Amino acid sequence: MFSSSRAVAVLLGISISFITIAFLSLFEGVPVAAIIVTGIISFSVAYLLIYLTYRYFIFNEITRINQLLKKITDEDLKFTIEDVGKPNNPIKKLSKEISRYAKVKEEEIKELRKMEVFRKEFLADVSHELKTPLFAAQGFIHTLLDGAISDKNVRNRFLKKAGKSLSRLDKLVQDLLVISQMETGTIKMYYSHFNIYDLVQEAFDQLEDKADKKSLKLCFSNNCPTNIYVYADKQKIFQVLLNLILNAINYTKESKSTITVNLIEQKGSILITVKDNGLGIPKEDISRIFERFYRVDKSRAKDRGGIGLGLAIVKHILEAHHQKITVESKVGVGSVFSFSLQKGIKEKAFVEEHTDH
Ligand code: ADP
Prior knowledge:
The strands form two sheets. Strands 2-4-5-7-6 form a five-stranded mixed beta sheet, covered by helices on one side. It has helices at residues 5-25, 32-73, 90-145, 152-184, 196-213, 234-250, 283-286, 298-303, 310-320, 346-356, and strands at residues 191-195, 217-220, 229-233, 258-266, 269-276, 325-330, 334-342. α1 (5-25) runs antiparallel to α2 (32-73), α4 packs parallel to α9 (310-320) and α6 runs antiparallel to α9 (310-320). The chain contains ten helices and seven strands. By secondary structure, the chain is α+β, with helices and mostly antiparallel strands. The site of adenosine-5'-diphosphate (ADP) has 23 residues, from α6 and α9.
């Protein structure tokens, strides 16, 4: 009965005009014609006012809310909050709240869908990465068992290859473990004050052989301060440095070129940059290289023994320090990876070093 604004307006209009007529009839001497005209006028005015109020303030909004709810049910969430206009009455407000709620849910659904795709890709990547070295090691060992073991030359070669495949597998599992611990927050952070110049030097020493093999030089930039301290988790920052410098070595062609680390004092922080003149990274890949298993060019990374987890680990470690890693790169020119760490205190580093032992 009250299914449309018109029906409601007619009903209320009749009621109001009836009450008006009844009221006027109480007075003696009021002409019948005047009572009828007043009845008609009061009906018309009441009808118009009620109809417009219902139509524009209640029915339209309820229809809009229904449409919104239908969209939410159908998961058709491609609308904007502006669709419902500015809220100047409670129903409009409700309508706006529902659309805002739907917007939040839309974001959640999008995120969940992205995570689902990500999970599937991750599972496929992990299985693929595990399978490759495992099958390789298995192949070498079976060949040896099938008789090749009696040939000393083949035996040594195959055992070395199987060992290399298993080391790759071990590295993959270790890296995955680090990432999963960082993501679940189960890795503890051990903050201390330490000299970052010395730590970079340690990383250089560890990677010197690899750089030498490609005739690459690892060095600090000119005027780089040596007496420079940060407050961070030393072991994890060492891992960050190793990953960045190793990438710089891996993705630079054999040449006489140099990989340069710079340490720049800033207000309250130290900026650390690792620069190479290597292959560079295409613009469209830059935002993705920190994803797990993302490689710019799978073949070029594989040649260099990359698994695609190094930068994901770097990102996680720096996020745990509430810092971000940034990269500037140009294909054929080279890349610069930069991050900041909280400035440390030399005196505290000295005390910590001497209480450690
Ligand atoms: P990977 O184990 O493959 O090196 P990373 O996560 O360390 O994995 O790096 C992801 C990808 O980013 C690499 O496969 C490579 O394509 C690109 N990349 C990383 N560092 C550099 C660099 N210094 N120069 C050029 N490309 C780089």
